[in-house]
Records
---
Amino acid sequence: MVGFVWLQPVSISFIKYLMWAYSTSTNSEKGNIEFHGAHIHYVAYGQGDPVLLLHGGLSNKLSWFAQIPWLVTSGRRVVLIDTRGHGDSTDGDAELDYHLFADDTLQVLDRLNIKRTDIIGWSDGGIIALILGQQAPERVGRIVAISANFQPSALQFSAAEAHNQARSTVKNKVIAWLQNRWTGSDKNDALLEEKIYALWQNAPQLEHTDLQAIVAPTLVIAGEYDVIDPDHTIELAQHLTNGKLEIILGAGHSAHITHASTFNKLVAAFLNIPNPI
């Protein structure tokens, strides 16, 4: 059992989320927008300045279970979106593309009458956040980009190899199983996986000038053992107009889940909100 001590923080975060989610004080606003043939599902909790959470590829909004209760109780309006084709969103009739995901996100913000928001994006969600920072700077306050890349060459493995590598140890296999079961990503059909792997191989295609156009203060976070090349992560932070870099020691590609306490404290300091209890 000693070898599985690392599970305790994840389990505690999960239990806290369940207690919060099933409490009578938890009110939510849920809905769907229809855009380019897809139904994009969203949910919003709480009141206050908005913060948008964008999940990674082949996951969904529930991957933020270690952040949602804390952000709501800190006085923020927390908005979560299931990316097109993921979770409770359908993929529609358009080819999957990060710029399309960004357009979907703006449609949801318009529906919720949110003119400007902070964004926390993980992996694919971090890429979407960067694109929003570049293309719609007036809609973006601060950005936290976790394990994001701006070129496909940043993957230290092919997309399929990265998928397998993340599950190559007993620890990562258990984390992957728990995460997939909880978020429902174990139910992703083979066609969606094929589309996402193709996207990872060819996108994003952002240049240094695109990064320099992002004026929002941006916290770049990566795990010490991330699947994103560490030199690429440094390059990303350096070419952002207002970039800051933090590496979470011992973490892989899912630091907000496996190292939630460290991650949440970094985000709290960056967004100037109370530390999680």
Note: Residues 26-271 form a domain with the Rossmann fold fold (CATH 3.40.50.1820).
---
Amino acid sequence: MEDVLGVYHLPYNPEYPVVCMDESCKQMIGEVRQPIPYAPGRPVRIDDEYVRNGVAEIFMEVEPLAGRRHVAITERRTRKDWAMQIKQMLDNRYPEASKVRLVMDNLNTHNTASLYEAFEPEEARRLAERLEIHYTPKHGSWLNMAEIELSVLKGQCLGRRIADMTTMQAEVAAWENDRNNSARKIVWQFTTADARIKLKRLYPKL
């Protein structure tokens, strides 16, 4: 916990950006009957019956101090899918960074072994050397600022039925573009000093 909190309070450095990553999913729901649209004095009417169209996986990546985020909607979230997101992040979004300080939970796909499963050893090593990984503690996922951004995404964009992957990708891309244009930053205020007081029960008694 203190390791992650220490990273969050480092000064902004574009050569060593702090990026938080998290994953979630969204059930794709189709309509059996078309909703009846709004009319004066009458809300939209949606039938209770629906059809399940599978699950879309969400990769959320956010740089809190820069107010920048990227969301990928995929069909799976295997080791290779995570490795591909890392490669795209390093090569496309942070090509000039010496290292990316990556904060995420310790899911079994979230490690450099996934890079070696997805790419040739030389490429996997190149990518791994540009990562400085900081894991949130078990039961401490609330320390990952990407969870905040996922909550905003679900509230502003995904809080309704979306029928298919293409529609979801398009709408999430529009949300991402709007949010990046407004440069919405996350101001993290919980410090190590706060943790030692408020979470005193978690520390050993010497």
Note: The first helix runs from residue 2 to 8.
